[in-house]
Write a structure and sequence with these properties.
Layout: E1 5-9, H1 14-25, E2 29-34, H2 37-47, H3 53-57, E3 60-64, H4 70-84, E4 89-92, H5 108-136, E5 139-144, H6 157-177, E6 182-188, H7 195-200, H8 212-223, E7 234-236
Parallel strand pairs: 1-2, 1-4, 2-3, 4-5, 5-6, 6-7
Helix pairs in contact: 1-8, 4-5, 5-6
């Protein structure tokens, strides 16, 4: 990925941070939009501890942006292209979870929040990036969906619906992108071994669950030249979990 430019949305979170670091280690310049500056500062601190930290840390850029704001995201992508002349990869790791709620007991606000976090944010980001990539004639988009997009368990209707819609959106995008040199794929994690998940689910045996770094390597592959034949895939990344 040396010399390439990636935009990692949600890049300060558990999976997003691992993805950002994987891209940096592979030599890519990475732009991370964020809402809380302290989280980006913490990410940059971790980046400075990577091998070759002097050069790697200089490849990390941050921008305080609300990624549900269409105008702000459009300006973000345009700024990246103006500064660096290209955008080679977009990875959207943003999302949220709401579960344990019977369908008939679900508040409308919960449903709307799942749609905003798991579908709308991806729509705004992917549309802005795809426009420039099509003009460029190259690029890769990876959207993080979930196993729940296919496995619709009880108590998580809004979450499952939003993730299933995200997969459908990417499938249709991939069909639109045929022949353009741009690719779009989804990955489907289950529960990931992150700090926030460990706090929220103290009874779970996380030793058996995928690590963010393992999933980040799959994302990195999908954005690289070695995956140029893969378009419109939904890749399960939950192993035996």
């Amino acid at each position: 990925m040396k010399g390439k430019v990636a935009l990692v949305a949600g890049g300060t979170g558990g999976l997003g941070r691992a993805t950002t670091l994987a891209f940096l280690e592979a030599g890519a310049r990475v732009v991370v939009p964020y809402r809380e500056e302290d989280k980006f500062v913490a990410l940059k601190k971790v980046a400075t501890s990577l091998p070759g930290a002097g050069s790697v840390a200089g490849l990390l850029e941050g921008s305080q942006v609300n990624v549900t704001d269409e105008a702000a995201v459009g300006a973000l992508v345009e700024g990246i292209v103006q500064r660096h002349g290209r955008l080679d990869a977009l990875v959207n790791t943003l999302g949220g979870y709401a579960g344990g709620i019977k369908f008939w007991e679900m508040e409308t606000e919960v449903f709307e929040r799942m749609i905003a976090l798991n579908l709308r944010a991806g729509f705004v980001l992917v549309r802005a990036a795809a426009r420039g990539m099509v003009k460029q004639g190259s690029g890769a988009i990876v959207n993080v969906a979930a196993k729940a997009a296919l496995d619709h368990g009880a108590g998580a209707a809004a979450y499952a619906a939003s993730k299933a819609a995200a997969v459908a959106m990417m499938d249709s995008l991939a069909a639109d992108l045929k022949g353009t040199g741009v690719r779009a794929n989804s990955i489907l994690p289950s529960i990931i071994d992150t700090e926030s998940n460990r706090k929220a689910m103290p009874g779970v045996d996380f030793a058996k669950l995928p690590k963010p770094e393992e999933i980040a390597r799959v994302i990195l592959f999908l954005c690289g030249d070695g995956a140029k034949l893969i378009n419109g895939a939904s890749v399960p990344v939950y192993g035996d979990s």
